[in-house]
Amino acid sequence: MLNGKTALVTGSTSGIGLGIAEKLAAQGANIILNGFGDVEAPKASVASAGQAHGVKVGYHGADMSKPAEIEALFAYAQAEFGGVDILVNNAGIQHVSNVENFPVEKWDAIIAINLSSAFHTMRLAVPGMRAKNWGRIINLASAHGLVASAGKSAYVAAKHGLVGLTKSVALETATTGVTVNAICPGWVLTPLVQKQIDAKAANEGVSLAEAQKGLLGEKQPSLQFVTPGQLGDLAVFMCSPGADNVRGVAWNVDGGWVAQ
Ligand code: NAD
After folding, report:
1. 187 CB under 6 A from ligand 1?
2. If you measure from the C-alpha of residue 140 to the centroid of ligand 1, how many angstroms do you get, rounded to a whole number?
3. Which one of 84, 181, 215, 231 has the lowest number of neighbouring Cβ atoms within 10 Å?
Protein backbone atom coordinates (compact mmCIF):
# COMPACT_ATOMS: atom_id res chain seq x y z
CA MET A 1 0.00 0.00 0.00
CA LEU A 2 2.84 2.42 0.79
CA ASN A 3 5.37 1.30 -1.80
CA GLY A 4 7.41 4.21 -3.11
CA LYS A 5 6.58 6.42 -0.10
CA THR A 6 9.16 7.47 2.47
CA ALA A 7 8.30 7.73 6.15
CA LEU A 8 10.39 9.71 8.63
CA VAL A 9 9.67 8.55 12.18
CA THR A 10 11.39 10.67 14.82
CA GLY A 11 12.51 8.94 18.01
CA SER A 12 12.23 5.52 16.40
CA THR A 13 15.18 3.66 17.92
CA SER A 14 12.87 2.50 20.73
CA GLY A 15 9.30 1.99 21.90
CA ILE A 16 6.33 3.39 20.00
CA GLY A 17 8.34 4.97 17.17
CA LEU A 18 10.01 1.67 16.40
CA GLY A 19 6.64 -0.14 16.44
CA ILE A 20 5.18 2.39 14.01
CA ALA A 21 8.25 2.23 11.74
CA GLU A 22 7.92 -1.58 11.56
CA LYS A 23 4.21 -1.39 10.61
CA LEU A 24 4.83 1.24 7.92
CA ALA A 25 7.74 -0.80 6.52
CA ALA A 26 5.49 -3.88 6.40
CA GLN A 27 3.24 -1.84 4.06
CA GLY A 28 6.19 -1.07 1.79
CA ALA A 29 7.25 2.40 2.96
CA ASN A 30 10.94 3.27 3.00
CA ILE A 31 11.87 4.35 6.51
CA ILE A 32 14.15 7.02 7.96
CA LEU A 33 14.89 6.20 11.57
CA ASN A 34 15.98 8.77 14.14
CA GLY A 35 16.81 8.70 17.84
CA PHE A 36 19.54 7.87 20.31
CA GLY A 37 21.12 4.64 21.54
CA ASP A 38 21.67 1.46 19.53
CA VAL A 39 20.82 1.95 15.85
CA GLU A 40 21.77 -1.41 14.31
CA ALA A 41 19.09 -3.53 16.05
CA PRO A 42 16.17 -1.17 15.20
CA LYS A 43 17.47 -0.85 11.63
CA ALA A 44 17.58 -4.64 11.28
CA SER A 45 14.07 -5.15 12.71
CA VAL A 46 12.57 -2.49 10.41
CA ALA A 47 14.39 -3.93 7.37
CA SER A 48 13.09 -7.37 8.29
CA ALA A 49 9.50 -6.04 8.64
CA GLY A 50 9.78 -4.55 5.14
CA GLN A 51 11.75 -7.38 3.57
CA ALA A 52 8.96 -8.55 1.25
CA HIS A 53 8.92 -5.06 -0.30
CA GLY A 54 12.70 -4.54 -0.27
CA VAL A 55 12.27 -1.30 1.66
CA LYS A 56 15.21 1.05 2.12
CA VAL A 57 15.99 1.91 5.75
CA GLY A 58 18.07 4.97 6.59
CA TYR A 59 19.02 6.69 9.82
CA HIS A 60 19.82 10.24 10.88
CA GLY A 61 20.82 11.05 14.45
CA ALA A 62 19.44 14.61 14.64
CA ASP A 63 18.79 15.81 18.18
CA MET A 64 15.16 16.89 17.83
CA SER A 65 15.64 19.71 20.33
CA LYS A 66 17.97 21.45 17.84
CA PRO A 67 16.41 23.20 14.82
CA ALA A 68 19.69 23.18 12.84
CA GLU A 69 19.97 19.41 13.25
CA ILE A 70 16.32 19.00 12.15
CA GLU A 71 17.19 20.96 9.00
CA ALA A 72 20.16 18.62 8.43
CA LEU A 73 17.80 15.64 8.84
CA PHE A 74 15.53 17.03 6.10
CA ALA A 75 18.51 17.69 3.82
CA TYR A 76 19.50 14.03 4.32
CA ALA A 77 15.92 12.89 3.56
CA GLN A 78 15.87 14.93 0.37
CA ALA A 79 19.28 13.74 -0.81
CA GLU A 80 18.88 10.06 0.05
CA PHE A 81 15.10 9.47 -0.29
CA GLY A 82 13.76 12.33 -2.43
CA GLY A 83 11.87 13.84 0.50
CA VAL A 84 9.40 12.85 3.21
CA ASP A 85 5.89 11.62 2.32
CA ILE A 86 4.88 10.42 5.78
CA LEU A 87 6.06 12.33 8.83
CA VAL A 88 5.57 10.75 12.24
CA ASN A 89 6.48 13.16 15.03
CA ASN A 90 7.13 10.75 17.85
CA ALA A 91 10.32 11.73 19.71
CA GLY A 92 9.45 12.59 23.27
CA ILE A 93 10.68 12.63 26.84
CA GLN A 94 9.04 12.85 30.25
CA HIS A 95 9.90 14.38 33.62
CA VAL A 96 7.70 14.15 36.69
CA SER A 97 7.80 16.87 39.35
CA ASN A 98 5.50 19.46 40.91
CA VAL A 99 5.63 22.82 39.16
CA GLU A 100 7.47 24.60 41.99
CA ASN A 101 10.31 22.08 41.82
CA PHE A 102 10.29 21.57 38.06
CA PRO A 103 13.86 21.99 36.75
CA VAL A 104 13.87 24.84 34.22
CA GLU A 105 16.15 22.92 31.86
CA LYS A 106 13.71 19.95 31.90
CA TRP A 107 10.82 22.28 31.03
CA ASP A 108 12.81 23.69 28.11
CA ALA A 109 13.85 20.23 26.89
CA ILE A 110 10.31 18.82 27.03
CA ILE A 111 8.83 21.78 25.15
CA ALA A 112 11.64 21.61 22.56
CA ILE A 113 11.50 17.85 21.94
CA ASN A 114 7.78 17.10 22.48
CA LEU A 115 6.35 20.24 20.84
CA SER A 116 8.69 22.60 18.97
CA SER A 117 10.36 19.76 17.02
CA ALA A 118 6.98 19.05 15.39
CA PHE A 119 6.71 22.70 14.31
CA HIS A 120 10.14 22.46 12.69
CA THR A 121 9.52 19.12 10.97
CA MET A 122 6.11 20.28 9.69
CA ARG A 123 7.39 23.58 8.35
CA LEU A 124 10.07 21.62 6.49
CA ALA A 125 7.85 18.74 5.31
CA VAL A 126 4.69 20.54 4.18
CA PRO A 127 6.11 22.26 1.04
CA GLY A 128 7.21 18.93 -0.49
CA MET A 129 3.91 17.28 0.44
CA ARG A 130 1.92 20.13 -1.08
CA ALA A 131 4.01 19.86 -4.27
CA LYS A 132 3.12 16.15 -4.56
CA ASN A 133 -0.43 16.80 -3.33
CA TRP A 134 -0.05 13.85 -0.99
CA GLY A 135 1.27 13.60 2.52
CA ARG A 136 0.54 12.23 5.95
CA ILE A 137 1.57 13.88 9.20
CA ILE A 138 0.95 11.88 12.36
CA ASN A 139 1.79 13.50 15.68
CA LEU A 140 2.24 11.27 18.71
CA ALA A 141 0.48 13.27 21.40
CA SER A 142 -0.93 11.41 24.41
CA ALA A 143 -3.97 11.00 26.61
CA HIS A 144 -2.10 13.87 28.29
CA GLY A 145 -2.84 15.91 25.18
CA LEU A 146 -6.52 15.73 26.17
CA VAL A 147 -6.53 15.56 29.98
CA ALA A 148 -3.97 16.32 32.68
CA SER A 149 -2.24 14.56 35.54
CA ALA A 150 -0.46 16.16 38.49
CA GLY A 151 3.31 16.34 38.28
CA LYS A 152 3.47 16.50 34.50
CA SER A 153 3.05 20.21 33.76
CA ALA A 154 5.61 20.39 30.94
CA TYR A 155 4.50 17.15 29.31
CA VAL A 156 0.78 18.04 29.52
CA ALA A 157 1.46 21.54 28.18
CA ALA A 158 3.55 20.17 25.30
CA LYS A 159 1.02 17.46 24.39
CA HIS A 160 -1.99 19.82 24.56
CA GLY A 161 0.08 22.17 22.39
CA LEU A 162 0.79 19.37 19.93
CA VAL A 163 -2.94 18.61 19.62
CA GLY A 164 -3.59 22.29 18.88
CA LEU A 165 -0.73 22.45 16.38
CA THR A 166 -2.16 19.35 14.67
CA LYS A 167 -5.58 20.99 14.25
CA SER A 168 -4.12 24.23 12.95
CA VAL A 169 -1.95 22.63 10.25
CA ALA A 170 -4.80 20.24 9.36
CA LEU A 171 -6.91 23.31 8.55
CA GLU A 172 -4.13 24.93 6.54
CA THR A 173 -3.88 21.79 4.36
CA ALA A 174 -7.58 20.84 4.38
CA THR A 175 -8.14 21.24 0.64
CA THR A 176 -5.01 19.29 -0.29
CA GLY A 177 -3.97 15.64 -0.28
CA VAL A 178 -2.01 16.27 2.92
CA THR A 179 -3.66 15.15 6.18
CA VAL A 180 -2.52 15.99 9.69
CA ASN A 181 -3.69 14.03 12.73
CA ALA A 182 -2.65 13.14 16.25
CA ILE A 183 -2.63 9.79 18.03
CA CYS A 184 -3.17 9.97 21.79
CA PRO A 185 -1.98 6.79 23.51
CA GLY A 186 -2.64 5.82 27.09
CA TRP A 187 0.00 3.77 28.91
CA VAL A 188 2.32 1.84 26.59
CA LEU A 189 5.03 -0.28 28.24
CA THR A 190 8.16 1.38 26.84
CA PRO A 191 11.38 2.61 28.52
CA LEU A 192 9.64 5.99 29.07
CA VAL A 193 6.92 4.33 31.19
CA GLN A 194 9.19 1.71 32.77
CA LYS A 195 11.09 4.59 34.45
CA GLN A 196 7.80 5.75 36.01
CA ILE A 197 7.00 2.21 37.19
CA ASP A 198 10.48 1.92 38.75
CA ALA A 199 9.99 5.28 40.53
CA LYS A 200 6.52 4.29 41.77
CA ALA A 201 7.83 0.97 43.15
CA ALA A 202 10.64 2.78 44.95
CA ASN A 203 8.40 5.58 46.34
CA GLU A 204 5.67 3.24 47.55
CA GLY A 205 7.94 0.38 48.65
CA VAL A 206 6.07 -2.13 46.48
CA SER A 207 7.18 -4.68 43.87
CA LEU A 208 7.52 -3.75 40.20
CA ALA A 209 4.51 -5.94 39.39
CA GLU A 210 2.40 -4.14 42.01
CA ALA A 211 3.59 -0.75 40.80
CA GLN A 212 2.65 -1.69 37.22
CA LYS A 213 -0.82 -2.82 38.33
CA GLY A 214 -1.26 0.40 40.32
CA LEU A 215 -0.20 2.59 37.41
CA LEU A 216 -2.75 0.99 35.08
CA GLY A 217 -5.46 0.96 37.76
CA GLU A 218 -5.19 4.72 38.36
CA LYS A 219 -5.82 5.73 34.74
CA GLN A 220 -6.47 2.95 32.25
CA PRO A 221 -9.81 1.10 32.70
CA SER A 222 -8.80 -1.78 30.39
CA LEU A 223 -5.98 -2.58 32.85
CA GLN A 224 -3.93 -3.51 29.77
CA PHE A 225 -1.07 -1.68 28.17
CA VAL A 226 -1.60 -0.36 24.65
CA THR A 227 1.08 -1.82 22.34
CA PRO A 228 3.35 -0.06 19.83
CA GLY A 229 1.97 -2.44 17.18
CA GLN A 230 -1.61 -1.29 17.83
CA LEU A 231 -0.50 2.32 17.39
CA GLY A 232 1.33 1.30 14.21
CA ASP A 233 -1.87 -0.23 12.86
CA LEU A 234 -3.69 3.07 13.42
CA ALA A 235 -0.85 4.95 11.71
CA VAL A 236 -1.18 2.58 8.72
CA PHE A 237 -4.92 3.33 8.58
CA MET A 238 -4.22 7.07 8.72
CA CYS A 239 -1.95 6.58 5.67
CA SER A 240 -4.64 4.70 3.71
CA PRO A 241 -7.14 6.20 1.22
CA GLY A 242 -9.88 5.39 3.76
CA ALA A 243 -8.44 8.17 5.91
CA ASP A 244 -8.29 10.83 3.17
CA ASN A 245 -10.82 12.90 5.10
CA VAL A 246 -9.66 12.16 8.61
CA ARG A 247 -8.25 15.60 9.36
CA GLY A 248 -7.25 17.27 12.59
CA VAL A 249 -8.35 14.48 14.91
CA ALA A 250 -6.76 13.63 18.25
CA TRP A 251 -7.48 9.91 18.28
CA ASN A 252 -7.14 8.34 21.68
CA VAL A 253 -5.98 4.70 21.96
CA ASP A 254 -6.02 4.53 25.71
CA GLY A 255 -8.00 1.60 27.11
CA GLY A 256 -10.76 4.04 28.09
CA TRP A 257 -8.56 6.59 29.94
CA VAL A 258 -10.23 9.78 28.66
CA ALA A 259 -13.74 8.32 28.57
CA GLN A 260 -13.86 8.64 32.38
P1 NAD B 1 10.86 5.81 24.40
O2 NAD B 1 11.66 6.43 25.51
O3 NAD B 1 10.79 4.32 24.29
O4 NAD B 1 11.34 6.35 22.98
C5 NAD B 1 11.62 7.69 22.78
C6 NAD B 1 12.42 7.83 21.51
O7 NAD B 1 12.72 9.21 21.33
C8 NAD B 1 13.75 7.09 21.54
O9 NAD B 1 14.03 6.58 20.26
C10 NAD B 1 14.74 8.21 21.90
O11 NAD B 1 16.06 7.94 21.47
C12 NAD B 1 14.11 9.36 21.15
N13 NAD B 1 14.53 10.67 21.61
C14 NAD B 1 14.51 11.18 22.88
N15 NAD B 1 15.01 12.40 22.87
C16 NAD B 1 15.33 12.70 21.59
C17 NAD B 1 15.90 13.82 20.95
N18 NAD B 1 16.25 14.93 21.63
N19 NAD B 1 16.12 13.76 19.62
C20 NAD B 1 15.81 12.65 18.90
N21 NAD B 1 15.28 11.56 19.47
C22 NAD B 1 15.05 11.59 20.79
O23 NAD B 1 9.42 6.46 24.55
P24 NAD B 1 7.98 6.03 23.98
O25 NAD B 1 7.16 5.65 25.15
O26 NAD B 1 8.11 5.11 22.84
O27 NAD B 1 7.45 7.45 23.52
C28 NAD B 1 7.29 7.83 22.17
C29 NAD B 1 6.29 8.97 22.07
O30 NAD B 1 5.01 8.51 22.51
C31 NAD B 1 6.64 10.16 22.95
O32 NAD B 1 6.31 11.35 22.27
C33 NAD B 1 5.75 9.97 24.15
O34 NAD B 1 5.47 11.17 24.80
C35 NAD B 1 4.52 9.38 23.49
N36 NAD B 1 3.65 8.64 24.42
C37 NAD B 1 4.12 7.57 25.13
C38 NAD B 1 3.24 6.91 25.97
C39 NAD B 1 3.65 5.71 26.77
O40 NAD B 1 2.86 5.25 27.61
N41 NAD B 1 4.83 5.14 26.55
C42 NAD B 1 1.93 7.34 26.11
C43 NAD B 1 1.50 8.45 25.38
C44 NAD B 1 2.37 9.09 24.53
Report:
1. yes
2. 9
3. 215
